[in-house]
Design a protein that fits this description.
single chain; Rossmann fold; 2 domains; elongated
């Protein structure tokens, strides 16, 4: 980012002052953050979304999925999920000492105005800097945290979408099974052999897949660390293997008999069918010649050309409630994609 970022402006104008020593933690950090405005030897990023995590690591920034127990100051980059963001702010307040700044930064399209109002209702908020379609401001940790902060923590706790299951805030359908996955469920009976659930989330589809005694192993591939932890809490089955990974870059140890996916089709608030296309291409590269892909997608999403390029045969087996269930067979693996071993 250029030197005229919101953070650099706030620091140069003295809107808030960072402590001269100690670790500076950025919660839900992004690679596009203005890292140059912070002392290089004090960077610490927290990011649980694997593609973003890896992009930050490539910049030489220390990054991990969990926040540290203490920090000199914290910066929260908001998310589009309000409860998740307020939980991040509560976490930031918990790890910094009294008097330390907690900086809140985000775009207007992410809801920064509402977040700053919610913080201002509870804690004194300093001057707000508006720039590049977003805002940045800071509050300072009081000696005793107001009781409302504990409520932010509670609201950010994992939801309970069904008996015995948990799902983190900010994940897909934390309150229950989304309609696309529900439409796919009846088609999971009869799966057998080695398989993968790409974009497994908190494990709803994987639980149904593992009800098939003929499934010998299942790779749950999920880019969100918190969602994968929820899946691990929800599924106690020795056939399940959990992978914190970008599904479009995942390579199974053996070629698979089946892949199931309800791929994401949004980047932030913007529709991005390219994500689903990347999942389809990746699935083709994971499958044995006799393998098959079961995909659910919104009816309007334009995946047909990608399916035709990646598979010898692909056709909808059902259309229901605005969704299409597609079965694709005869995968065409890209020559540039590493091949796994054939299933035994």
């Amino acid at each position: 980012m250029p030197s005229t970022s919101r953070l650099s402006v706030a620091l140069s104008e003295g809107t808030f002052v960072l402590p001269p020593e100690g670790e500076l933690v950025v919660l839900r950090a992004r690679a596009a953050f203005d890292w140059g405005s912070l002392p290089r030897d004090r960077w610490r990023a927290v990011q649980g979304f694997r593609p973003e995590h890896d992009a930050i690591a490539a910049l030489g920034v220390t990054v991990g999925p969990h926040a540290p127990e203490d920090a000199a100051a914290a910066i929260v980059q908001i998310t589009r999920d309000r409860a998740e963001t307020m939980g991040l702010i509560a976490r930031a307040l918990a790890i910094v000492p009294a008097g330390a700044p907690v900086v809140i930064d985000g775009q207007k399209t992410e809801g920064i105005d509402a977040i700053l109002r919610a913080v201002r209702d509870v804690l004194p908020l300093g001057e707000v800097i508006s720039k590049a379609h977003g805002k940045i401001a800071a509050c300072h940790r009081p000696g005793t945290l107001p009781p409302e902060v504990a409520r932010w923590v509670e609201e950010a706790r994992p939801a309970v979408p069904e008996a015995g299951a948990v799902a983190p805030r900010g994940s897909v359908s934390p309150a229950g099974l989304d309609r696309g996955s529900a439409a796919l469920l009846p088609h999971l009976a009869g799966l057998a052999g080695r398989g993968a659930d790409l974009g497994a989330g908190w494990g709803a589809l994987s639980q149904a897949i593992l009800e098939n005694a003929t499934v010998t192993s299942l790779d749950l591939v999920e880019a969100e660390f918190d969602a994968l932890e929820a899946a691990q809490a929800n599924i106690d089955d020795p056939r399940a293997r959990f992978h914190w990974a970008d599904a479009t870059r995942f390579h199974p140890t053996h070629l698979l008999d089946f892949v199931v996916t309800n791929p994401p089709f949004h980047t932030g608030r913007s529709a991005d069918p390219g994500l689903g296309r990347a999942f389809i291409a990746a699935a083709a590269g994971m499958l044995a010649p006799s393998g098959r892909l079961l995909l659910v997608a919104n009816r309007h999403l334009p995946y047909e050309a990608t399916l035709a390029a990646a598979f010898g045969h692909a056709a909808p087996v059902q259309e229901v409630g605005g969704y299409k269930i597609i079965l694709a067979t005869a995968p065409r693996r890209s020559p540039g994609r590493r091949r796994g071993k054939r299933p035994l």
